[in-house]
Amino acid sequence: MDKIAEKFPKGVLHALIGEKKFSLSRLQPSAEIGYFVQHYWIVRWDLRGQAPYSQVVIAHPNVNLVFEKGASGIFGVAKTTSSHLLKEQGWVFGIKFKPGGFYPFLQAPVSTLTGGVIGLEEVFGIDTNQLEAEILSQPDDAAMLRLAEQLLTAHMPEQDPNTALVADIVQMIQQDRTILRVEDVVHLTGMNKRTMQRMFDRYVGVSPKSVIQRYRLHEAAERMDQGTAGDWLDLSIALGYYDHSHFIRDFRSIVGVSPEEYRQYK
Question: pLDDT, tens digit, for every residue of 144-192?
Fold first, then answer.
């Protein structure tokens, strides 16, 4: 069982506060399952004797299959942010599919899941509560991972070449900070814009424009958390915005507060 470096991913808001409240582990899938799955993740917390803590995330463009006591399910990409209330003691085990990686299991546009959650019964024909109890009762991370891999292996679809194509495009958007508009992706890939939009609707669940926006706001939040954002004009220019008012509107529409309110949060 290989562990990925346990660094909080971008998109976890106020990460310096969050890392004092919970721990995050990420585990590699097997080679075959790795065609569809980005990684497994486990969040643990112990806030006994402390106030509950709400962790907010700017969602990545990934479907997650989550096992948590009384709240398990298959979660589509959140439209804005997603939040999770941590209280007392607990843990969550999750399967993070690659962008496009859940479509071969679902065999329906992933956009039908966007902003929502469904039970395992609807995709895998398995009782959600029963599998939740089995996975969360395992003695260690490796045992939980084995059960998850058994589930996916038993329902393994054929590899869809569009899954790898979409995952590569999303990774390019994430890593190439010069990509600021959908037209930039069209230029780099040579794909027709409308074809790309249809593919993202079917395989990812959100538009290419939304994916670009999410990753740029991930960058903004990280810089603010680390105290390296500078003024809003400089930050907006660095993120590819034409003016800082556009950046501020985007940030507020997704995060729910202005950049200044976010930066002042302690």
Answer: 999 999 999 999 999 999 999 999 999 999 988 788 889 999 999 999 9
Same domain, 184 and 135: no
**Are 15 and 142 in the same domain?**
yes
Structure tokens at 208: 């290419």
Instruction: Take residue 122 and report the two structure tokens written for it.
Output: 């609807």
What tokens does 241 get?
């915005």
- Quote the tokens at residue 43: 């969040």
Computed over every residue of the chain, the mean pLDDT equals 90
CA distance 23 to 139: 18
The owner of tokens 């399967």 is: 95
Residues 15 and 131 in one domain: yes
Dist. CA 239–CA 153, nearest whole Å: 40
pTM to 2 decimal places: 0.91
Alpha carbon distance 41, 94 (integer Å): 5
3: pLDDT strictly greater than 60: no
Residue 215: both structure tokens together: 């990753």
What's the domain range around 194?
161-264
C-alpha span between 35 and 56 (Å, rounded): 28
Q: At what angle do helices 208-226 and 161-175 cross, to 10 degrees?
A: 40
Greater pLDDT, 193 or 180: 193
